[in-house]
Structures
1.
Amino acid sequence: MTVQRAIAGTTLECIKGDITRQPDMVAIVNAANAQLRTGGGVAGAIHAAAGPGLEQEGRRFAPIKPGQAVLTGAYALPNQFVIHCLGPVYGRDEPADELLAACYRNALRLAAEHHIASVAFPAISTGAFGYPLQPAAEIAIRTVVETVREMKEGAPTRIRFVLFDDRAERAFAHALENLVPAT
Ligand code: AR6
């Protein structure tokens, strides 16, 4: 079940899938660690698919702070760029909701600065960092919708949320349906 909505000139969609297999997206977002090194989950999959150049380029930005986003090349991935976001560790980095929102907002601002037309996001912080899925989905969708509305024509024209399992896909799809009614 793919849920799609349009806001101004931007299409938002929630799909089930693997963030490393989005060849039609100019940029993909990494749920990074502060050192921009490989790891488990999304970061492990992205670094494995990109190859060692990604970690090498990341060194010059490290360490990044919760809520921050930085841009690198995508190396062997089928995209042009990777936007690395450090989400909050739930229960440690506070205020968690604002830091999580900052990830999505800063990633979209970076995309707009670099004229990136399409961006795919994973569910940042909802794996190893322990953020409960439901509030994380609501924050992700609300922040992206608000940021796109604020940016107007500078925003990417396609934004995709790539969710790894049914539960995450449902949480994001419901949040999108609730926030942006079908026209
Ligand atoms: N594509 C899309 N989503 C995925 C994929 C994938 N290939 N793999 C996992 N997910 P996580 P975090 C989902 O742990 O919570 C890393 O080790 C997963 O089911 O990747 O921000 C880093 O090095 C979950 O819903 O990111 C950091 O230390 C979501 O992606 C730390 O984990 C995020 O899970 C970051 O933790």
2.
Amino acid sequence: MTSQTFVAPLASRVAVVTGASSGIGEATAEHLASLGAKVAVLARREDRLAELVSRIKKDGGTALAIAADVRDDEAVRAAAHQVKTDLGGADLLFNNAGVMLPAPIEELATDQWQHQIDLNITGLMNAIGAFVPQLVEAAAERGVGDLVNTSSITAQNLFPNFAVYSGTKAYVTHLSRHLRMELGPKNVRVSAIEPGIVGTELQSHVTDPGARDWLAGSKEMMEWLTAKDIAHTVGFLASQPARVNLQQVTIMPTGQTS
Ligand code: NDP
């Protein structure tokens, strides 16, 4: 029997994960680190980031915590500067921080509309503005970079009372397709991940009683995805040969039909 050496598929890669203090971002940061990437983890809750970094380091990985609000352009640019200085620059951005606050439009929950637009669109754009130059530079030097944006099945399908959230995610998917046109020729792959329901903290922020009931009912009806399911999908697409770009990945709970 011959002994086989595990070659980490993302060794030499530097990944930045936004929204890394819980849910999909946290699981993805841990998974990318297990595949050999150095990871910089961004979110607002410093304590959660510190725990994540110490878990990754305990498993032999390299991780850097940066507490930042992605709605703050200056803070995100400072984070990009730190990633460049400490880790040599990013070649993978998992642009994932987001919030979902469904409610009937006639409730006029304008603060929640604004919160979703500020985080899911402006925050996403701040990270793109800060890190795309590093992705392009890395791709020119090493032949590959990845911009992976977290969208949602709501970008495609219709869900009553999810209009504003769905609108922000339709923006993410359509933006991603356009950016692929610009960045693909520069060896930066652009992907939009569109999950159905994933059990995370996302649902706990919902305040509208009707939406809360709908979510609770759906949990009874089907087995939701886990954050690890999405993490493995991100790891899979980043591990493909440089010529392969999974443009749009829709990942659903088997029991979720729309
Ligand atoms: P979580 O609520 O568990 O994670 C959201 C993350 O975003 C947290 O780490 C949070 O950290 C971070 N975040 C929130 N506000 C800010 C901010 N202003 N600046 C920086 N980071 C911030 O939810 P998920 O893991 O489910 O969500 C991740 C992404 O997946 C979102 O874009 C969501 O829309 C999308 N998605 C989720 C689905 C689901 O069913 N769960 C389905 C489809 C898409 P902190 O509070 O510490 O800042």
